[in-house]
Amino acid sequence: MIKRIVVVGSGVMGRGIAYVGALGGYSVTLVDINETALQNAKSEIEVIFEKGIKYGKISTDAAENARQKLVYENDLTKAAGNAELIIEAVPEMASIKKQVFEEIEKHASKECYFATNTSTMSPTEIASFGKRPEKTLAMHFFNPVHKMPLVEIVKGLETSDKTVEVIREVAVRMGKETVVINEFPGFVTSRISALVGNEAFFMLQEGLGTPEEIDKAIKLGLNYPMGPFELGDLVGLDTRLNNLNYLHEKLGEKYRPAPLLEQYVKAGRLGRKSGKGVYDYTIEEELVKK
User: Fold this and answer.
1) 3-hydroxyacyl-CoA dehydrogenase C-terminal domain: from which residue to which, for each copy (predicted)?
2) Whole-model pTM?
3) Please, which contacts does 132-137 make with residues 24 or more away whose CB atoms are closer than 8 Å?
4) Is the confidence at residue 287, as pLDDT, over 80?
5) What distance in Å separates the CA atoms of residue 265 and residue 79, rounded to the nearest whole number?
6) 79 vs 8, 45, 72, 95, CA distance in Å?
7) Tens digit of pLDDT for each residue in 180-217?
């Protein structure tokens, strides 16, 4: 049974995975070479704990037990040596993932399992950066991790059935539902989400309606919990564009990014994390300060 998990990357996804891992009873080390990013992640995780207690999602005791199981670390070499499962949650760029997998391969035990939190990229390719393809797969968590119930478990070409079962048990203990699928670019959810989000940008570009009207139509007409622009701003428009570029390369013309989306990213309008995307969140921040 897995007891010790290392999460590499303290961004939005990494910190969320660390949180649900600790709440599930695992000893979790969250690793980031950027000390500022690591401290920001620690603060954000504390906010999630406090909100969970406030709204009755978790008990005070459960939160305290989970806090005790969380460690924050800058040294990946040190952390990897003690891990039974390493979940990589760095940006969706093959060059960065390659650096991480080459490093953890050097220092992790031979028994350690590797997982990549990717929404589109090939777990077979990522596994090739290490030397244990049978123990490597993708765990696709969704944002925000502490609220979204699903983990897509994606098998690479050489992923063993035992590895799939071990990782499925980990996800279930983290409180998640799972689907196990075979590798193909975009998996299930990202292919659909990317198409919907990109088509919404084409609609906006064509003047079909305002972002508010398009989001409202999708939410009320198709029963989506969030509109495509709300979701895009949440996950990051740069992330959405990266995914579309990858899917366009692998699957063809229907995934070509809308020019307006490319313009937003070039302008630095990345969504909630930059204060402005399709919507302007600086207004919300000013209201909170007041």
Assistant:
1) 186-281
2) 0.88
3) 132/105, 133/157, 133/158, 133/159, 134/158, 134/159, 134/160, 134/163, 135/159, 135/160, 135/163, 136/163, 137/163, 137/164, 137/167
4) no
5) 34
6) 9, 20, 10, 21
7) 999 998 899 999 999 999 999 999 999 999 999 999 99
